[in-house]
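ARCHIVE CARD
Drawer: 12
Card no.: 0347
Subject: one protein chain, sequence and derived structure
Cross-reference: see card 0346
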Amino acid sequence: MSKPVEPSEDEIIRSWHVRARAYDDLIGRWSIFTEMVDRLIDLIPSDFAGHALDIGGGSGLLSERLLDRHSNASITLVEPAEEMRSLALHRLGDRVEIRDVTSHEVGELGIVADAALCSASFHLMNENTTLPSVAAALKSGSVFAVNLWGHSFDETATLDQKVDWTVFVDLALCESGERPLPRPKRAPSRLRSADGLRRIGEACGLHLQEKQIVESRIETRFNIEFAAMTDIFLDHVAPVRRERIINRALELCTGIDTIFSVDFRFIKK
């Protein structure tokens, strides 16, 4: 039996283009995204008034929060998914510059930034190319603040404590006379390590100064909402019934999950 294959960069970008509006709605409903962003902003100087890079900036949450706290800052938001850029433009207008580049192309922009930040998307990137690219765009002494979801970091990959949300989806499907949720095999998360990030960083002039593991509690229903962002979820159900089944699953869902994320602070040498 063949093993699941990791999606290509183009496939990842396309997937986030398709689900951009659903994701933007999601981050507005769940405070964990704002909390992750705010912790990263805490890692740059409290009097920051320079130019910042928002790497994989999505629909602009980090840029918006950074400008709320540092009104004299300027920002270049880089995001390769077209619909995400459209949402960021709608959210931020001309308050930031928005560029259509990937994380490993940042160093080619000709920008020399005073800080770089990347929230909730680093697990989708290749650290071997992203870290050197970010380093090339930073002034000496500048901060690169970045986080990882715990499932993508070796020290936290097995620590999440989650209720099985698929049980509630199956109950809703059963009530509607539909067959259970398909469970396709997925490629396991590629795990990063502090030693690996430190080694890559040192080779390109980024010193890993700080690592913080953060434990969060979140309602189990978050996982249903996350899964439901794409039309692939419950695609065996007629579209006219899909929304009703999802809403019923959310009504049935109980439980609190414990999940982890990891914040890193690099300094450009």
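Annotation on reverse: The longest strand covers residues 206-219. The radius of gyration is 19 Å.
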